[in-house]
Q: What sequence folds into this?
């Protein structure tokens, strides 16, 4: 989800641009660089292959996307001609590379017609054309594409036929196994070379994990591999080797090396340790396939049409692809639209991969270099919304603990420290007025695109193995009721005013989030088993806890537990008297929900239920445990997207027979009504209708009691008031419209 989110956020950050007509800056007057404090980069600065949000931001500085979004995250359909939209009482006009017209057809197909501007140039002076858009779409659609975009998963007419009959050499050889003797599609030498390369990479991969465990204090250097593996969630024999550690990982992931690489990494992916990975990414033809994607049509010199076979309300965000220059990332000699040539040989993205560390596009800045932890940019004088007023920008790596001090001391101008209670206090103390915005620091806060939650596995917490029965739901509601009671004090203690308690499993940033003013808005888990209110307005904290425990006893009894004299004395079949809850709090209790768990544990103990709080030093253990069905309950946070589509997290497939959503294995919800509602919401462009449907979905999820919504935190961007001309910073910054959206206007003092 992290990878997908990074790509979706790229649309927001790259495309949300504001009209400006700036004169070309005089370099002698603008040589002072703007320095931005950043978390560490991975050097994957590609619009196609960036994995982290930090790397994506580097690509964002150099690029533009096909579509533009506004301050509320909604797509602007008149980017070419400009569209005015009001926000917070002010009208803003948005421009972008293209106009979009959407047409729903009687046969169920949908046309997305794009008309591009004809005055955009890339930073090297070459003109941006519709061929660059088509090239970019074909890269994302290639059968060998393994980046984080899921453009190829859209129901685009002809997409499946184009991607059929081909797979990567890596996937084919690893699927065939080490003992394969069929060398129809590759040679024996290639097979041996790949396995040897993968084996040595695997040793380096797990060695980095072991080193990480030592650096984090979880192990001593002299500890065995088994001891270090145990701290990463793998149980091995005491004399286990690094090779054994890697083999255990491969077995746990059933040979899915891509999932293993992205989930277990301690900093470097498995494929980065391979000496010749790119050679194994080439496509091998295994059958017939279409020569083109029939649903991607060039309709004019500056226009194209994308045809979807069905309505998909989420598709518009994926269609706003970053427009990469064909002449830089591809090969113009291999582009001929009429001959089904799209800038590279199908199945061979080597020219695209070769430019991964050096991005180029039509964005406000040109990438210069990445050196000694600093990314250097220079203004793109060809930027279609006007040349940036600040000539030089630097993104500088630093730890989160150094970010705030960096602005105070003057080593950086802008950054994004964790907006904790302590940091908010430190910012206020730095300003002479005692506020978070003052003479030293200007603070801009927005709600984070995501939320914190407590998860409960239906597969692990149920009665008689019946995940969706009333008894199983009541068991989970018993725990959820106690957890929910302690949310307010916990969130206030950790975040203060920088976060708030939420009552539905959805980020408050979403247009689909229920509002307190809605007639059917409800406080999460505030009703007893009979549907009556648990709390009254005059209750103090102790009285509320007593009421929550009384309600919990009612739920436990309804779940089949034996309750006598205010205590639970026996569990029904398939349920237990003791459950674990896992929390990645660095082994030191440093987590927003840690207090909630301990208070709940103490409270539940008084009624005979044991809740064991397991504080993890390494967060990777949590995800390994969840995948192995070893985690009954846990604390984490979801990242969100501009569209509130719930397919990824809650769709089970029981309604349609389709595969479940990618993250539903965590909860194991299996609800046909929920499935149908999720798909109904996807199949409509009517936002009011979709909001009504999503409210029904949220109510079902709460009824299953697999997720306790906990907090909506804020993010902060801080600016040096002394060095940045605050009047030139993007006005009305929002979750979907960051400070970089109008970076071309920003000036230093």
A:
């Amino acid at each position: 989800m992290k990878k997908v989110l990074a790509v979706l956020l790229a649309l927001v950050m790259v495309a949300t641009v504001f009209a400006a007509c700036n004169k070309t800056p005089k370099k002698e007057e603008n040589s002072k660089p703007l320095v931005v404090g950043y978390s560490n980069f991975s050097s994957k600065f590609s619009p196609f292959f960036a994995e982290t949000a930090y790397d994506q931001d580097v690509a964002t500085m150099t690029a533009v996307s096909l579509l533009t979004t506004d301050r509320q995250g909604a797509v602007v359909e008149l980017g070419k001609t400009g569209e005015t939209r009001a926000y917070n009482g002010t009208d803003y006009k948005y421009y972008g590379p293209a106009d979009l017209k959407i047409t729903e057809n009687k046969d169920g197909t949908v046309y997305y017609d794009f008309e591009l501007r004809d005055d955009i140039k890339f930073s090297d002076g070459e003109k941006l054309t519709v061929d660059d858009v088509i090239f970019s779409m074909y890269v994302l659609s290639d059968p060998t594409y393994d980046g984080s975009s899921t453009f190829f998963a859209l129901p685009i007419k002809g997409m499946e036929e184009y991607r059929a009959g081909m797979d990567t050499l890596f996937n084919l050889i690893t699927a065939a196994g080490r003992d394969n003797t069929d060398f129809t599609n590759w040679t024996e030498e290639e097979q041996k070379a790949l396995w040897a390369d993968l084996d040595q990479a695997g040793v380096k991969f797990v060695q980095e994990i072991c080193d990480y465990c030592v650096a984090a204090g979880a192990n001593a250097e002299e500890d065995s591999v088994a001891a270090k593996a145990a701290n990463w969630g793998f149980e091995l024999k005491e004399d286990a080797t690094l090779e054994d550690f890697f083999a255990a990982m491969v077995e746990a992931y059933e040979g899915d090396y891509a999932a293993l690489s992205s989930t277990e990494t301690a900093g470097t992916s498995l494929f980065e340790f391979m000496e010749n990975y790119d050679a194994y990414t080439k496509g091998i033809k295994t059958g017939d396939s279409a020569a083109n994607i029939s649903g991607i049509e060039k309709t004019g010199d500056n226009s194209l049409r994308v045809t979807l076979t069905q309505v998909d309300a989420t598709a518009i965000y994926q269609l706003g692809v970053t427009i990469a220059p064909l002449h830089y990332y591809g090969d113009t000699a291999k582009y001929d639209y009429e001959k089904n040539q799209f800038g590279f040989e199908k199945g061979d993205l080597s020219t695209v991969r070769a430019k991964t560390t050096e991005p180029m596009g039509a964005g406000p800045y040109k990438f210069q270099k990445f050196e000694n932890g600093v990314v250097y940019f220079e203004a793109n004088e060809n930027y279609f919304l006007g040349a940036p007023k600040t000539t030089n920008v630097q993104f500088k790596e630093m730890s989160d603990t150094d970010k705030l001090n960096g602005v105070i001391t003057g080593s950086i101008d802008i950054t994004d420290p964790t907006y904790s209670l302590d940091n908010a206090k430190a910012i206020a103390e730095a300003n002479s007025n005692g506020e978070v915005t003052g003479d030293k620091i200007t603070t801009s806060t927005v709600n984070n695109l995501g939320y914190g939650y407590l998860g409960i596995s239906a597969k692990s917490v149920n009665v008689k193995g019946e995940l969706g029965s009333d008894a199983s739901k009541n068991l989970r509601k018993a725990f959820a009721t106690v957890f929910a009671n302690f949310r307010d004090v916990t969130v206030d203690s950790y975040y203060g005013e920088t976060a708030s308690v939420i009552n539905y499993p959805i980020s408050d940033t979403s247009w689909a989030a229920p509002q307190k003013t809605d007639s059917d808005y409800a406080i999460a888990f505030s009703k007893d088993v009979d549907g009556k209110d648990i709390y009254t307005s005059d209750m103090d904290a102790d009285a509320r806890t007593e009421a929550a425990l009384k309600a919990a006893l009612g739920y436990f009894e309804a779940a089949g537990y034996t309750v006598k004299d205010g205590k639970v004395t026996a569990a029904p079949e398939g349920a237990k008297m003791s459950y674990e809850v896992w929390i990645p709090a660095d082994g030191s209790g440093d987590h927003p929900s840690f207090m909630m768990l301990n208070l709940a544990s103490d409270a539940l103990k008084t009624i005979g239920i044991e809740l064991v709080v397991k504080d993890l030093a390494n967060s990777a253990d949590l995800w390994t445990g969840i995948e192995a069905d070893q985690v009954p309950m846990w604390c984490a946070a979801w990242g969100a997207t501009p569209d509130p589509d719930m397919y990824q997290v809650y769709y089970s497939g029981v309604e349609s027979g389709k595969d479940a959503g990618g993250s539903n294995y965590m909860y194991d919800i299996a609800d046909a009504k929920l499935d149908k509602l999720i798909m109904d919401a996807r199949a409509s462009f009517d936002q009011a209708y979709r909001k009504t449907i999503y409210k029904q979905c949220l109510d079902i999820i709460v009824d299953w009691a697999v997720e306790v919504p906990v907090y909506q935190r804020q993010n902060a961007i801080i600016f040096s008031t002394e060095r940045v001309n605050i009047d030139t910073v993007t006005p009305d910054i929002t979750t979907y419209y960051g400070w970089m959206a109008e970076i071309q206007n920003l000036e230093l003092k």
Confidence is low (pLDDT under 50) at residues 1-29. The first strand starts at residue 17 and ends at 18. The radius of gyration is 27 Å.
